[in-house]
Amino acid sequence: MPPFPTATTASATSHLALLLVLSSSSIFFLYKSLRLRRERSSAPARAPTATPTLLYASATGTSKALASRLSARLTAEAGVPVRATDAAAFEPDDLPSVPLLLLVLPTHDAGAPPPAAAFLARWLEESAADFRAGALLLSGLRFAIFGVGSRAYGETFNAAAKSFSRWLRALGAVEVVPLGEGDVDGGDIEVVFEEWSGRVLRVVKGEEVSDAVNGESDGLDVLEGEESDDDDDEDVVDGEVDMEDLAGKAPGRKQNGKVENGLRNGEENGARDMVTPIIRTSLEKQGYKIIGSHSGVKICRWTKSQLRGRGGCYKHSFYGIESHRCMEATPSLACANKCVFCWRHHTNPVGKSWKWKMDDPLEIVNAAIDQHTKMVKQMKGVPGVKPEKLEEGLSPRHCALSLVGEPIMYPEINTLVDELHRRHISTFLVTNAQFPEKIKTLKPITQLYVSVDAATKESLKAVDRPLFSDFWERFLDSLKSLHEKDQRTVYRLTLVKGWNAEEIDAYAKLLNLGQPDFIEIKGVTYCGSSATSKLTMENVPWHSDVKEFSEVLASKSGDVYEVACEHAHSCCVLLAKVDKFKINGKWHTWIDYDRFHELVTSGKPFKSQDYMAMTPSWAVYGAEEGGFDPDQSRFKKERRHGAAALKR
């Protein structure tokens, strides 16, 4: 008679039966889980200073900067050398052997993880959904995640970080610090990150031990039974650790459970600075001069070009501005879109309404002119700069309110425009077609642009990536509001091959909504590789492509518009209304700026035809100059490519 089966033989029998129905890959997962459980049960207790693995996946540089700051803090205060590593370089199969995982992670398009973390995300998601992996695969892993996002995106706010937390917990990992949720546009990311990293520091030092977090925490509340951390914060306040680094200077620390002065960094009467230290650092690296808490100015390459007598921008060819006397500025660095072709690589804030501190418009204008003239003065001594042009450049006569962001969001935009006009500075304002009511209440300006980045709802969502759920209705209403303006109005089209350049019939249908005076059609400018943009040089049209598109669009307008001007260097073409601006066969797209200021000063109603001027022959479409002013000197850089470059 066979012996009575023991618990051990019964267990072995059941395991054998299970193995008979599992595939080879299933056997691997089961073996791996059982082996890890056995190894961990016999392993000695982990020292509190076990070296963590710190990963980041950065889209605009913010997450990398925060991870670097955390690395420095853990190394200095915990004595544990921690290196911040790009998630793209991390092998997910190594996760089971990681004692503590720290992850700083932004959210990309539609709540997805950024490209650098895409492979890791796919590995975790697939493993969490695979019954063969089960809840034992990462049962020895502890982790903490800090999400970098914007509440302006609603339900997708820090969605990627939340997904990572959910997948890791599904695989048995223990979340030792609640998910940190930083809001780059809300202005609180510095405070939230400091609190979160302080908790991480205590975990690494073995001073704080917590049970698994259930994933439903909505902030960084103190865990049950946790002692006061006043002493810890006091040490930091005393300056033992310098936290001013890549991500900007840390804000005031908490003391006795309160933020110093009762306000967070940059807050005033409950309103925060639009430009956080991280955003300021990023924009200043790109050459911006930040004005106050929400404005900026930057010298344009065409300003430098015309100071040297080497040609002006397309606005010089189309409208007669003096590029060396043009100031590029904005009273609002924030925007309601995240366009794929944004040349600022999405380093500016986003928002759907004004929620920040507001600076005085007079102070903004004064500071903008001051900063602009300082940058012009720095051109003194640069080879080729003409003294007379430099002298003129110190007195700006044009302001392009199109630097970055959405200028029309600024609540005092009308007062700011009035102040510019009072100084005889013309105004060219660009709006991104998401604030129709602001367009209606805008005072007369020299020229008002609306960006028409796509012609269908689907493509507009893909190209502009707007914050508003009713973005299409706002877009159409903005075009209709443009029609109500008496001064010069413009549709601004940026052609992106493969995204919107094929929608010419849909564009033609939009012409009747706004009935603009002009239509600018420009090829997208490639600004280099970026994790926030999928564009490549293949998306950039040739000037011949832009010309062809412009000619077809003009023909589809029913002779309402004709191609009037071009600027080949900028890959840009201008369509103009025939009945308004073509007089006796001659185009009048230029502006009589002195006359415009007279009309504004009079306070009486006036129309776009009241301050137009004749377009010079060299700027007219088809001229051999291609829109290049013959009074300027053409300068072409010698470019070496391929074999020639290698021989150099």
Structure report:
With 648 residues, this protein is of the alpha/beta class. The chain has two domains: 53-205, Flavodoxin domain (Rossmann fold, 3-Layer(aba) Sandwich); 287-619, Aldolase class I (TIM Barrel), CATH 3.20.20. Helices cover 35% and strands 15% of the residues. It is built from 21 helices and 22 strands. The strands form five sheets. A ten-stranded mixed β-sheet has the order 9-10-11-12-13-14-15-16-18-17, sandwiched between helices. Strand 4 (142-149), helix 5 and strand 5 (174-175) form a beta-alpha-beta unit. Helix 11 (361-377) crosses helix 13. The longest helix is centred in the N-terminal third of the chain and has 19 residues, at 24-42. One of its GO terms (biological process) is wybutosine biosynthetic process. Residues 319-562 form the Radical SAM core domain. Belongs to the TYW1 family. Residues 636-648 have a biased composition (Basic residues).
CATH topology name of the largest domain, in short, is TIM Barrel
For the record, the CATH architecture of the largest domain stands as Alpha-Beta Barrel
Number-wise, the strands total 22
Report the β-strand fraction as a percent range. Answer: 5-15%
Descriptive terms for the model:
single chain; rSAM; ten-stranded mixed β-sheet; EC 4.1.3.44; TIM Barrel; tRNA 4-demethylwyosine synthase (AdoMet-dependent); S-adenosyl-L-methionine; 648 residues; 22 strands; 2 domains; alpha/beta; six-stranded parallel β-sheet; disordered N terminus; Rossmann fold
